[in-house]
Amino acid sequence: MKEGQSKGLFDSDDEIAWCPGCGNFAILTAIKTALLELNKRPEEILMVSGIGQAAKLPHYIRANVFNGLHGRALPPAVAAKIVNPELTVIVHSGDGDTYGEGGNHFIHNIRRNVDIAHFVHDNQIYALTKGQASPTTDLGQVTGIQTKGNLDQPLNPLMLALAAGASFVARGFTGRPEHLVNLMKEAISHPGYALIDILQPCVSFNKVNTHGWYADRVYELPEEYETGNLSRALEKALEWGEKIPVGIFYRVEKPTFSDRLSWLTDHPPLVDRVWNPQDAERFLTELE
């Protein structure tokens, strides 16, 4: 933390609309802590989200915010980073928003390897729509909508990310806040697309994957775990049930999308070329 930088630097005055006990509170605290420990400032941050309970998080943090359509958080986040590489761009979205509605963007922006951090609040349920099965809901799990049990095979987001070529793949758990903060710091600092799938309880609509359920199963990958071994990462990503690993499953450095485009690296940032105070003034006048 920079000298004189307040712990409340990223606090927002907006009233929080999550249910008491929601895992999103721990994620909000973790991201504020991570940004402070990375010596970031609110003006340096862009928080992007789609629709859902997780997507409300940017409203509860003091930073630049873009709140878009359901499943469409990644396109504006990627565009913002490309035109303004100095921005720290972080996407907050849920398991439905990312792996369901936004599944296509998820896969293809992994391929592009744009330098953004993507934090998925994975409570294994659609909470905003009051408890229907999400892409990560376990097979056979009974919900308020799937009263006979979920019939769809759950998506394994870590396996999908690894298969698509992601350069940073991790899983966190809201019940291990210090560990989660460290994962976030590593993801934000990683040069390229960085995914953290964050296990979190939904106290209102998921009565199976509770805090206690996760706590009994979650364990941290050991320090000697080799994060550059793809085969090992795939093996660990398949581990789910009685034991659930958390940590950095895979991390390698690859050229980013901007690195592969010489006209981006050899010229001033696009934001400096297409936007200036006169343009802003003209734009605001047109809106009057």
Give a brief description.
The protein has one domain (24-263): Thiamin diphosphate (ThDP)-binding fold, Pyr/PP domains (Rossmann fold).
Protein architecture, described:
The protein is α/β, with parallel strands linked by helices. The chain has one domain: 3-Layer(aba) Sandwich (Rossmann fold). It is built from 11 helices and 8 strands. It has helices at residues 24-37, 74-83, 95-101, 103-112, 157-164, 177-189, 211-215, 230-237, 262-265, 270-274, 277-287, and strands at residues 45-49, 64-67, 88-94, 117-122, 168-173, 194-199, 218-220, 244-251. The protein has an 8-stranded mixed sheet with strand order 2-1-3-4-6-5-8-7, with helices on both faces. The radius of gyration is 19 Å and the shape is globular.
What labels describe this entry?
11 helices, 8 strands, 33% helix, single chain, 288 residues, alpha/beta, Rossmann fold, 16% strand, 8-stranded mixed sheet
Topology:
Blueprint: H1 24-37, E1 45-49, E2 64-67, H2 74-83, E3 88-94, H3 95-101, H4 103-112, E4 117-122, H5 157-164, E5 168-173, H6 177-189, E6 194-199, H7 211-215, E7 218-220, H8 230-237, E8 244-251, H9 262-265, H10 270-274, H11 277-287
Parallel strand pairs: 1-2, 1-3, 3-4, 4-6, 5-6, 7-8
Antiparallel strand pairs: 5-8
Helix pairs in contact: 1-6, 3-4, 5-8
Number of helices: 11
CATH topology: Rossmann fold
How many distinct domains? 1
CATH superfamily: Thiamin diphosphate (ThDP)-binding fold, Pyr/PP domains
